[in-house]
Amino acid sequence: MRLACTMTEARGALDPLLHDVAQTAMARGLRLAGIVQVNSDRPGCAKCDMDAVVLPDGPVIRISQSLGPNARGCRLDPDGLERAVAEAAARVEDGIDLLLVNKFGKQEAAGRGFRPVIAAALEAGADVLVGVNGLNLPALEEFMGERPDVLPPDQDRLLAWISAREGVAAANG
What we know:
- By secondary structure, the protein is an alpha/beta fold.
- It is built from 6 helices and 7 strands; from the N terminus they run βαβββαβααβαβα.
- The protein has helices spanning 14-27, 78-93, 106-109, 115-123, 137-144, 155-172, and strands spanning 3-7, 32-38, 51-55, 60-62, 98-104, 127-132, 149-151.
- A 7-stranded mixed beta sheet has the order 4-3-2-5-6-1-7, sandwiched between helices.
- Helix 1 packs parallel to helix 6 and helix 2 (78-93) packs parallel to helix 4.
- The longest helix has 18 residues, at 155-172.
- The two termini are 16 Å apart.
- Residues 168-173 have low confidence and may be disordered.
C-alpha cells in the first residue's frame, strides 16, 4: 500500500487530469474505486454545479448544492457527498488496486468525507492517490502520520507512480 497526492493551486485543474489518469489505469486493467469530478454540460447548469463520477463505472452524483445561476459561491452538498462516499466504500469492500479521490478537502481534513474510505483502502493494501491543495496537505500528513508521496500534476508522473504497483504485483505474482 502506498499513498500519494498531487496538488495544484489552479482551481479545477486536477479534475480533468485525474479523470484521464483514472481512464488510463482502468484501461490497464487496474481495479479502481473513488471519484473524479466531471463538469456537466447539461442545460440549466450553473457555474458552481459539480458532478462526480464514482469509479469505475458510475453513477454520476451531484456533489454541489443547487444555489441558482446567480450564486456568488459554491457549496458542497452533504447528501451528495455522503452518497458518493457510500458508493466508493462499497467498491473498496469488493477489492481494489487503487483508490483515486479527486480532493482531500475540508471535509476530509475535519475527519469526514472520504477519510474513512481512504483508511479502509490502505488497510486493505490498496494504493491511494488523492488531489489536495496546500491548505489541506498538513491535515493529510497528520491523518497519515507521515508525508505522502507528493507528485506533480503531470499525467505521465502519476501514471508512472501507479505503474510501480503493477511492477511489484508482477514480481510477486
